[in-house]
Design a protein that fits this description.
Blueprint: H1 4-27, H2 48-53, H3 61-74, H4 77-90, H5 94-111, H6 114-127, H7 134-147, H8 157-172, H9 180-212, H10 215-231, H11 240-255, H12 261-264, H13 267-281, H14 289-297, H15 301-304
Helix pairs in contact: 3-4, 4-5, 5-6, 5-7, 6-7, 7-8, 8-9, 9-10, 9-13, 10-11, 11-13
Length: 306
């Protein structure tokens, strides 16, 4: 047996060693901390580069607005249009949507895409009739219809729509000094186009009478000319000379007796009558081949009615 002092010394040594081991183990051991998993926000608009890398159809309203602002600085019209359309598609801040509609109407007019320009201009006027730019939207709608109207020998729907919108503008904005002059010029040209369209029909009726001697065709031409004088001539007095020449020819034909079998054989007299009708319709300064080709692209009503 160990003596008592030695046993106490051994026990004391073991206690110190044990404490030292426990202390060392505790100092090297850290408490476990929860691991935070990073998950980016779905609507994170803080990084412009990531926004521009996306397809427009995947952008949120805020992202589309930021992208549009960037492309506006870069003067990239195509991307401005795409971003503005995306903003309207998903919806968001009303003021940003208002300006986007105006931008779309303006940009499509500049690009010559008149159907879309008219669409957004009319939408703007519908949703924001009291806005300061409602007047500009009305002008864009008028201009879009005017620039897309067809020549007088084709459908005149756009011409009539231009007249309707122009008259509404002049009634609504009586004190306007910004657009009124241009609108009056477009309105005058539209009335000339409508009159010229009517004269095209009258010419066809007169030619039909010349070849068939059908009194109904001559009567129809006379009635159409009377209607034209009553409804359209007051809006375009510069066309009076042309209309008057056609009217005289119709009156001459109405007073002329119906041709008999003998007179039908007189080809020279027949040809003279035919030429009278054609010259009455086309009594403007000599229209060359090139001027007729030009009319296929741009119809010059001022020269026609001179």
């Amino acid at each position: 047996m160990l003596n008592q002092p030695l046993s106490k010394l051994i026990i004391f040594s073991l206690m110190i060693t044990s404490a030292s081991l426990v202390g060392t183990r505790h100092s090297k051991t850290k408490k476990s901390e929860p691991i935070k998993k990073y998950s980016p926000k779905k609507d994170d608009t803080s990084h412009l580069g990531s926004i521009l890398a996306k397809q427009t159809k995947d952008l949120t309203f805020e992202q589309a607005a930021q992208a549009k602002e960037y492309h506006t600085k870069e003067k990239n019209q195509e991307m401005i249009i795409k971003c503005a359309q995306r903003m309207l598609a998903v919806g968001g801040d009303q003021e940003l949507m208002r300006t986007a509609r105006m931008e779309l109407a303006d940009l499509f007019l500049q690009k010559g895409e008149y159907k879309d320009a008219e669409k957004y201009a009319l939408e703007y006027h519908k949703y924001y009739p009291g806005a300061d730019e409602a007047k500009k939207a009305s002008y864009i709608a008028i201009r879009s219809n005017y620039l897309s109207k067809l020549s007088s020998d084709r459908d005149q729907e756009k011409t009539r729509t231009t007249v309707k919108l122009a008259k509404e503008f002049l009634t609504t904005y009586k004190d306007d000094t910004e657009y009124t002059k241009q609108i009056n010029e477009m309105l005058d040209d539209c009335y000339k186009s409508l009159i010229r369209s009517e004269l095209n029909v009258i010419e066809t009726q007169l030619n039909n009478y010349h070849y068939t001697h059908n009194e109904a065709s001559l009567s129809a031409a006379g009635k159409r000319l009377s209607f034209l004088k009553e409804t359209l001539l007051p809006h375009a007095p510069a066309t009076e000379k042309k209309i008057s020449s056609i009217e005289k020819e119709i009156e001459k034909l109405q007073k002329k007796p119906m041709p008999t079998d003998d007179t039908k054989k007189e080809s020279s007299s027949e040809e003279t009558t035919k030429q009278d009708i054609i010259l009455a319709y086309d009594s403007s300064p000599q229209r060359t081949y090139f001027s007729r080709v030009k009319d296929c692209f741009y119809e010059d009503n001022d020269t026609f009615f001179a």
